[in-house]
Write a structure and sequence with these properties.
The structure holds 2 protein chains of 2 kinds. Chain A is α/β, with parallel strands linked by helices. In chain A, 39% of the residues lie in helices and 18% in strands. In chain A, strand 9, helix 9 and strand 10 form a beta-alpha-beta unit. Chain A starts with 10 loop residues before the first strand and ends with a helix. In chain B, a hairpin with a 4-residue loop joins strand 1 and strand 2. Helix content of chain B is 40%, strand content 15%. Chain B folds into 2 domains: 194 residues, Aldehyde Dehydrogenase, Chain A, domain 1, CATH 3.40.605.10; 184 residues, 3-Layer(aba) Sandwich (Aldehyde Dehydrogenase, Chain A, domain 2), CATH 3.40.309. By secondary structure, chain B is of the alpha/beta class. Classes of the chains: A alpha/beta, B alpha/beta. Bound molecules: pyridoxal-5'-phosphate (PLP). Pyridoxal-5'-phosphate (PLP) binds next to helix 6 of chain A.
């Protein structure tokens, strides 16, 4: 089969193609997002994800990386998990997005499955097409239920960038679009119960929204008892407790929902990202009967054409089933145990550089003794074949999120590479300091 | 009504992905368990075996109810023999600690297989499940059991009881798993999974052959068809008692139950008379033909007969026999493939052939094994060592029970062979193992070998042990890292070798075994 090779494009994806990675990056800047594209080039991580499978992603250059960020848990089950792929492919023989006006087969089935596996008390499901929209739904629901307007969140919280959600987060993202509304969205310091009580005391707060562990802030762990006390304050001052489980749900803490490890039944729980196996966008809000009253009052109160798309519901049903397996839970406990122990050994090697491990299950924040430490580590990890990202709102901390179905030999390889990268980042920083 | 138009796209049958998840979990568990020290392993093995033995009666009854065959009290005996019995057999042996050979300057470090996939039969359901679990635990392997579908309920209950006891005694989570809904695609997926380190297949030939075809290391065992030679020097009364007791054992569903008795003409009538005194019914010619038609209609074995009692089988053939009949003896002339009585029967029907001489009897035994059962077992009742040697050398089997019933003789319960529920049939029986399956078959050793030069001295390795005893549940529960000090430390693993209750239970069980064996061997 010796055929004349007449300048076929090197990167042919069927409907589109590129001649080279450089051309792709140029077009990315020209037609898509110049700021973001340039940021990664400047960061020493010129990654354009091409092939992807299991917990591996491949740059266009062919370079393989172990995915230890998983897009915040989106690829919890690995990339293109074969079981979810099969479920969605089969579903496409019969279903499409569906029609959001009507009762729906798949939306109802997923709702039932979510309620059956959720903390008791949650009884209704409302769908969005992404995490931000689901957070907006949660906030609207709380406002309706309490007939109050204020939403309290944590300084450096991250709940998404949609209309209401953006108000709960860092100013950087709301001010840019003139969307900051401090009167409606007071922010209080994390782990500070006095500040929380001060914010609630006026009884004018609709809800406190809490990531069970604040992800984009680098996974600082709630002090033992903190979340429980916040929930108690909510009850005392008639505010709802909204658990943002977008990054802590789906078995990442070793239980299906992280909040259950605190014994808390939230009034509202939000899930997104990993819920559909990374194959079809969908997000969901789970609410108690009391919180979800608007569904009776005006069932068309929140309209979203793609919210709860039926193909996404099917992906989510399969994902939920996989996450709920006894085998999966067991494996997460093994992975968490192994990763934690190996990292503790690495920490013992570099005690004045690798200064902290924040861990709950396979959610990890690794703290380094430099204001931008995690960026150095990220780059060395990239060079050594692991993808993990610094925390946008605290760049000392690396977000390190291994998959829940990680195989032991990949876990070992990931840690070998991580150990080397942490050492190299340390050497680089020491050299900079010496030559400075 | 919705009209579903799903096409059969690359669809994996239900249960297969779940099976893969079990293998992945077992992989983690096996890696953890492979680091355990001998004392902890012993504690786990004791607790797990006792958990099964304590419910031996219940599981025996449930097995008979679910499968419809076998004899409850015989299954009780096997359940005990294959749990605490096996543990006692190997007590004092260590499959964990490094072995030091100072003379040859070699240290052998035991290395478990990893993930053992065990396929278990319907005939010996709980005993085989227990046997394989205990062997796996002794050698620090994880095990996944795929039970025979006919016996799945009782096997699942038994394996779960053992798994719970193992983990409570400190074993890693997931060390024992069992498939609740076995199916052919699921078993295939488990057998071909690259994480399966060894398959131990007991069951019909198709299962065993596919284990070997899987591409993974496999230990499979072939079928039996046991010939029994009785020569003129045998003690006829004892021989008859032993053969009938053994043939009646568990209604003859073991692969080790006698198939055809080959009697030297000089003692044949005396032997038949003694059989009758032991509760066998010797069929007359027309009765024998009726039994042949009932047990082998159109020449094919009728599976309804498996493990049924003799009276019931006779009734099906329209024959009235005394109510206490335990075995039906079917005399016939010629051992050839088209004679159904020359095949394995899996019910208390015993073939009987007369031969003019013991030498001719050897030829007949060979003829039986040409049909099936090569590599398995045979028995001889004789006082003549020359003949016994000649028989054993000529007949292609790997164990010959001498002056003992074969069902518990070949399986090592009434002989000093390693007690087993899995009989290696060796090359003749197309298997990789020729011995009775025992712990060593699930182990490799890493041998560190010193320079043979006498000037290179091997230092002392005495007391060096790479293995550890876990300090809490394995794996540890994933508490938040800032909460580990506040939360009460996980319940420390119970360290005494064995608790009072379990020790008492073990004594009781030992007594029970001795009593039952006594009753069984009563002459
Ligand atoms: C905790 C948390 N909540 C909500 C969101 C918003 O989800 P989405 O990006 O799907 O809008 C994110 C996204 O990173 C998140 O991490």
């Amino acid at each position: 089969m010796t055929q004349e090779n007449t300048a076929a494009p090197e990167f042919d994806y069927g409907l589109f193609s590129y001649d080279s990675k450089e051309q792709m990056l140029d077009k990315s800047k020209e037609f898509w997002n110049p700021g973001k594209t340039q940021f990664w080039i400047d960061s020493g991580v010129p990654l354009v994800i091409d092939r992807r499978e299991e917990y591996f992603i491949y740059d266009m250059s062919g370079k393989r990386l172990i995915d230890a960020h998983l897009n915040g848990g989106t690829y919890n089950l690995g990339h293109r998990n074969p079981e979810v792929v099969q479920a969605v492919t089969m579903a496409m023989q019969h279903f499409d997005i569906g029609n959001h006006h009507f009762p729906s087969l798949a939306r109802t089935a997923l709702a039932e499955a979510l309620i059956k596996t959720a903390p008791s008390g949650l009884s209704k499901v409302i769908y969005g097409s992404g995490g931000g929209e689901a957070i907006d739904i949660a906030l609207k629901t709380a406002r309706h239920a309490t007939q109050k307007r204020k939403i309290v969140s944590i300084i450096k919280a991250y709940h998404g960038h949609t209309g209401l959600a953006v108000g709960t987060g860092d100013d950087r993202f709301s001010k840019l679009f003139l969307s900051d509304r401090p009167e409606e969205f007071p922010h209080v310091p994390f782990n500070d119960l006095e500040a929380m009580e001060d914010a609630l005391r006026g009884r004018d707060v609709a809800a406190v929204i809490m990531e069970t562990i604040p992800a984009t802030y680098g996974f600082p762990l709630p002090n033992p008892g903190y979340l429980e006390a916040v929930k108690a304050l909510c009850e005392k001052y008639d505010a709802l407790y909204i658990a943002d489980e977008v990054q802590t749900g789906l078995m990442r803490t070793g239980e299906l929902w992280g909040i259950t490890k605190h014994g808390i039944t939230p009034d509202i729980l939000v899930t997104g990202k990993g819920i559909s196996g990374g194959l079809y966008p969908i997000a969901a809000v789970l609410a108690t009967e009391k919180a979800a009253g608007w569904l009776n009052e005006d069932g068309f109160g929140h309209i979203s054409t793609f919210g709860g798309a039926e193909l996404g519901c099917i992906a989510a049903l399969k994902t939920l089933e996989i996450c709920s397996r006894e085998e999966t839970r067991s494996m997460v406990h093994y992975i968490a145990d192994y990763v934690g122990k190996r990292l503790a050994e690495v920490q013992a090697t570099y005690p004045d550089w690798f200064v902290g491990i924040r861990q709950n299950g396979v959610i990890l924040g690794l703290e380094f003794a430099h204001p931008q430490g995690a960026k150095y580590v990220m780059r060395h990890l990239y060079e050594n074949g692991v993808w993990a990202i610094f925390s946008t709102l605290d760049p000392r901390v690396l977000q390190y999120k291994p998959g829940i179905l990680l195989k032991p030999e990949v876990a070992e390889e990931m840690l070998d590479r991580t150990e080397l990268a942490i050492g190299k980042a340390y050497a680089e920083i020491r050299n900079e300091r010496r030559s400075a | 009504m919705s009209e579903m138009t799903f096409e059969p796209l690359m669809v994996e049958p239900a249960g297969v992905p779940r099976g893969r998840a079990m293998v992945e979990r077992a992989d983690w568990a096996a890696r953890a368990y492979a680091k355990y020290d001998a004392a902890t392993v012993n504690r786990i093995v004791d607790a797990t075996a006792s958990a099964l033995a304590a419910r031996a009666q219940e599981f025996a009854r449930d097995a008979v109810t679910e499968t419809g065959f076998g004899v409850v009290e015989h299954k009780v005996l096997k359940n005990i023999a294959c749990s605490t019995g096996i543990v006692e057999t190997y007590r004092g042996q260590d499959f964990v600690s490094p072995e030091i050979d100072e003379v040859n300057k070699i240290v052998a470090i035991p290395r478990p297989a990893g993930v053992v996939l065990a396929l278990t039969p319907s005939t010996n359901p709980v005993a085989t499940v227990s046997f394989k679990i205990i062997l796996a635990l002794m050698t620090r392997n994880a095990i996944i059991i795929s039970p025979h579908p006919m016996a799945k309920k009782v096997c699942v209950a038994a394996a779960k009881a053992m798994a719970e006891a193992a983990v409570a005694a400190g074993a890693p989570d997931g060390i024992i798993q069992i498939v609740e809904d076995p199916s052919i695609p699921l078993i295939n997926a488990l057998m071909t999974d690259e994480r399966t380190d060894v398959i131990v297949a007991t069951g019909g030939s198709p299962v065993v052959r596919s284990a070997y075809r899987s591409g993974n290391p496999a230990i499979g065992v072939g079928p039996g068809n046991v010939p029994v030679l009785v020569d003129a020097t045998a003690d006829i009364q004892k021989t008859a008692a032993r053969i009938i007791e053994s043939k009646a054992f568990d209604n003859s569903i073991l692969c080790t139950n006698e198939s055809v008795v080959i009697a030297e003409e000089a003692v044949a009538d005396k032997l038949l008379a003694a059989f009758a005194r032991e509760g066998a019914y010797v069929l007359k010619d027309e009765e024998r033909d009726a039994i042949r038609n009932t047990v082998f209609p159109e020449g094919h074995f009728n599976i309804k007969m498996v493990g049924k009692d003799a009276v019931w089988i006779a009734e099906q053939a329209g024959i009235k026999v005394p109510a206490k009949t335990r075995v039906l003896v079917a005399p016939f002339d010629l051992v050839v493939p088209e004679e159904p009585f020359a095949h394995e029967k899996l019910c208390p029907v015993l073939g009987f052939v007369r031969v003019p001489s013991a030498d001719r009897g050897i030829d007949v035994a060979r003829a039986i094994l040409r049909i099936t059962g090569a590599g398995h077992s045979a028995a001889i009742h004789s006082a003549n060592p020359n003949l016994i040697m000649k028989f054993s050398a000529a007949v292609p089997v790997l164990r010959v029970s001498v002056n003992v019933g074969n069902s518990l003789g070949s399986s090592g319960i009434q002989t000093n062979l390693p007690p087993t529920m899995t009989i290696g049939t060796g090359f003749a029986g197309r298997s990789s193992v020729g011995e009775n399956l025992q712990p060593k078959h699930l182990l490799n050793y890493t041998r560190l070998a010193y320079n043979a030069d006498v000037r290179e001295v091997m230092p002392s390795f005495a007391g060096l042990n790479p293995w550890v005893s876990p300090t809490g549940p394995v794996p540890a529960y994933p508490l938040a890292s800032n909460d580990r000090a506040n939360t009460p430390a996980p319940a420390p693993i119970h360290r005494e070798p064995i608790s009072q209750d379990v020790a008492e239970l073990r004594d009781e069980i030992r007594k029970l075994i001795v009593e039952e064996l006594h009753a069984l061997i009563k002459n």
